[in-house]
Amino acid sequence: KVVLCWFRRDLRLHDHAALYHALRSGLPVVPVFVFDTHILRDLEDKADRRLQFIHDALIRMQQELQAAGSTLHVFHGTPEEAFQAWVSHYDIAAVYTNHDYEPYARQRDTAVAKQLGEQNIAFHTYKDQVIFDKGEVVKDNGEPYTVFTPYSRKWKSRLDGFQLKSYLVEKYKQHFHRQPPIPIPTLREIGFEPTERNFPPDDPEDALIRHYDQTRDFPAQQGTSRLSVHLRFGTVSIRQLAAKARQLNETFLNELIWREFYQMILWHFPHVVGESFKKEYDRIQWRNHEKEFERWCAGNTGYPIVDAGMRELKATGFMHNRVRMIAASFLTKHLLIDWRWGEAYFAKKLLDYDLASNNGGWQWAAGSGCDAAPYFRVFNPTLQTQRFDKDMAYIRKWVPEVDELTYPAPMVVHEVARKRALEVYGKALKK
Ligand code: FAD
Questions:
Q1: For residue 28, what are the contacts with CB-CB under 8 A and spacing of at least 6?
Q2: CA distance 408 to 301
Q3: Measuring CA to CA, which residue among 4, 36, 54, 201 is closest to residue 105?
Q4: Residue 75 and which of 152, 293, 339, 357 are 20 to 30 A apart at CA?
Q5: How far apart are CA 349 and CA 346, in angstroms?
Q6: Is 232 helix (H, G, I), strand (E, B) or coil?
Q7: Beta-bridge partners for 33
Q8: Is ligand 1 within 6 A of the CB of residue 254?
Q9: What is the DSSP letter of 224?
Q10: How far apart (Å, rounded) are the C-alpha atoms in residues 22 and 25?
Q11: How far apart are CA 297 and CA 314, in angstroms?
């Protein structure tokens, strides 16, 4: 008999809740992963860098497991097919995995638990990718928070050493199931192309975190951690990172709490996928002008800070947070294009794409989200540039022709667009 440890968005072999519990179960552990065709079929870009990132992480895990005489078992297909195959291949007592809070994941896990249950195989799940989940940080009356500041206050008041303790997986490495290596399918075998690799490192310097509050708003600087892709795929541990944040910088810790806030919102209010958190915002008469949307995507709006961000995103899969806010505000307020269009475009392009944070960020910018910017606050891209990129170093990097005649004039005049946004929003919200 063996147990399986099913990896999903937790692609590491250290400080891992499900793996720890599996290794302590007393039965040999087979680590498994599914290249889930339900997810892969929605990815349009066959050279999607996220697949390369995942593949690299699996290869690293495979090397570590081989050193322990074991192997990762990777399946390409649906989770249902994967478990059918594994059930006929191994004598399985239980499957261990970590919680996943997205609607698709919840439905997938319910189906897998049922499929396994029919064969008397237990399905154990654990909290791993956040410090607090589900109903752990709620108001005194048990309701979920919808405003960040009181949520973060409660979050911090509940934090003690216990939640930050690492799961010492290393101690139990001899409990992996011993078997010869099973090759991981190549990217081509699962229908994708290899891509370039310049992914950010997973261990930013302490000095960067220590000064984070002073540097984080300036896109020309390397002033943020670039850990988002690692947090997304679990190649770093949130416990180790939060412990570091608590020591080094309160503002940085707050950003990690924003991440949990949006995950918690998605858990309690799954309607935010596809609908405004505040329902009345779905009455807004978006203009949804397709040509204007294309100019925004391509980074040709004539607003250099917006264009720099959109070009950075297209070229690298990353955009600085300050610029994400400006670009999202520009799309929803200046162009009056439905936040869902912007959300979907970011979802395709962002290396760190995460349903909860992306949806939260977009609804924040559009004003439709919980604890969002008030709708009448319309970012002025020119003033934002003066504050956060005053030497235009970031802009010049991505829009080198900014001072030349070939660079387009602003596609809308800020004041005109601002008035129009206030009218259209005002009309929808007054009803
Ligand atoms: P740092 O500034 O170093 O922050 C550290 C970590 O804290 C980040 O890696 C991230 O996990 C978390 N974090 C920071 N800011 C936020 C925030 N506002 N909301 C939630 N978590 C945060 N973040 C994603 O991880 N995936 C997304 O798909 C995503 N989409 C966004 C869309 C919009 C419109 C906006 C305004 C923000 C979005 N963010 C998203 C949040 C934020 O922009 C990124 O997390 C951040 O830019 C990543 O860079 P970093 O790792 O250097 O962050």
A1: 2, 3, 175, 176, 177, 178
A2: 7
A3: 36
A4: 357
A5: 5
A6: helix
A7: 7, 74
A8: no
A9: S
A10: 5
A11: 8
Tens digits of residue pLDDT in 332-366: 999 999 999 999 999 999 999 999 999 999 999 99
Dist. CA 50–CA 353, nearest whole Å: 9
261 is annotated as contributing to ligand binding: yes
Cβ of 23 closer than 6 Å to ligand 1, yes or no, is no
How much is the pTM? 0.98
The pLDDT tens digits of the residues spanning 281-312 come to 999 999 999 999 999 999 999 999 999 999 99
Query: Is 225 strand, coil or helix?
Result: coil
Reported as a single tens digit per residue, the pLDDT across 120-166 is 999 999 999 999 999 999 999 999 999 999 999 999 999 988 999 99
| DSSP H helical ranges for 24-101 | 37-40, 49-67, 79-89
DSSP 274: T
Gap from CA of 277 to ligand 1 centroid (Å): 19
Of the residues 6, 86, 258, 267, only one is catalytic, namely: 258
Which three-class secondary structure state does DSSP give residue 214?
Answer: helix
The per-residue pLDDT of the chain, averaged, comes to 97
Residue among 255, 275, 300, 380 flagged as catalytic? 255
In terms of C-beta distances under 8 Å and separation of at least 24 residues, what long-range contacts does 287-291 make, across chains too? 287/335, 287/336, 287/337, 288/336, 288/337, 288/338, 288/341, 289/335, 289/337
Domains of the chain as residue ranges with CATH: 1-128 (3.40.50.620), 129-166+203-268 (1.25.40.80), 279-430 (1.10.579.10)
Task: Collect all residues with Cβ–Cβ distance below 8 Å to 89 and sequence separation of at least 6.
Answer: none
- Of 341, 321, 305, nearest to 414 by C-alpha is 305
Give CA–CA dist 210/236, Å, rounded.
Answer: 19
Residue whose tokens read 């918690």? 264
Q: Is the dihedral of CA 367, 371, 374, 378 positive or negative?
A: negative
N-term to C-term CA, the chain: 63
The residue contributing the CA closest to ligand 1 atom 21 is 259
Residue 234 and residue 127: Cα distance in Å, rounded?
13
